[in-house]
Amino acid sequence: MNRLLFFILLLFATSCGQKKGEASSEEPKRIAVIISTLNNPWFVVLGETAAQKARDLGYEATIFDSQNNTAKEAEHFENVIAAGYKAILFNPTDADGSVSNVKRAKSAGIPTFCMDREINALDVATTQIMSDNFSGCVELGQYFARQLNKKGTYVELLGLVGDNNTWNRSNGFHSVVDTFPDLEMVAQQSADFDRGKALEVMESLLQSNPDIDAVFCGNDEMAMGAFQAVLAAGKSDHIKVFGFDGADDVLNSISEGKIVATAIQYPKLMAQKAAEFADQYIKGDRDFEKKIPIAVQIITAENISNFGNYSKSE
């Protein structure tokens, strides 16, 4: 009986050990989604779409909010690296300041896939998936010039000065409008891509420039803030407001004749691609383009029925 009991116990122990090992090997791998800020609906869509696509591919996914703070972002990277995440889907806070974080992840063997915003290094992120901001704002600048009949004064609200998207959009826009001598920019100021700050900045700019004809904003959140200021000043019938992103509230404002135009980006597409690439990398694929541009499209009152929810209707 003792020998029989010994073999039963041995068989039970062996079986439990195998099950424990099997459970451990089947634990889902984790992917981190580190977003510059969740205080902007556009980035909420980017982050949630990336996380959901990762989950659909069989991974656990956690979203981290950097709150537009490079120190907070660095803390997230430290925690993600220490926790052994398999990949990072990343929306940087700063083109220069975020490079060191991605380098640390790479040194730890964790690939980083940049979404929407780029970093100023080509050899650290696995790939960078970004909207073609410059070309989009070339087209937007052309529409802007036509709407103002190639003459008048305007102000520009810039995004975060440390973000390359800010300057790619501004430079694309100016590559067109600066060719018209009768279009004059009377002020240019940063509002950090933030609606509340854009409201304050625009209120101040209207005090010193009450007779402007238009305002070009580097994103839709700033466009909404700028429009609030223009409306409060009683100038919404004269001052034309332009944005960039394709956010739903701006599309509604275009439909209502409040905002003139925007350029739609595709955060869902960029987020899904980043998650798919991370999955491919984890499964052994190492062949990725360093930069992948995603085309943007101009939305006006004439074509707005073709767009919605950060996508184009088929």
Strand content: 15-25%
Number of strands: 14
Quaternary structure classification? single chain
The residue fraction in helices comes out at 40-55%
Shape: elongated
Instruction: Give the end-to-end Cα distance, rounded to a whole number of Å.
Output: 75 Å
Task: Please compute the radius of gyration using only Cα atoms.
Answer: 24 Å
What string, H for helix and E for strand, traces the elements in order?
HEHEHEHEEHEHEHEHEHEHEEEE
Average pLDDT score: 92
Main pleated-sheet profile: 6 strands, parallel
Structural class: alpha/beta
Report on this model:
The protein is of the alpha/beta class and 314 residues long. Helix content is 46%, strand content 19%. The protein is built from ten helices and 14 strands. The strands form four sheets. A six-stranded parallel sheet has the order 2-1-3-4-5-11, sandwiched between helices. Strands 7-6-8-9 form a four-stranded parallel sheet, with helices on both faces.
Write a brief structural summary.
With 314 residues, this protein is of the alpha/beta class. It contains 10 helices and 14 strands.
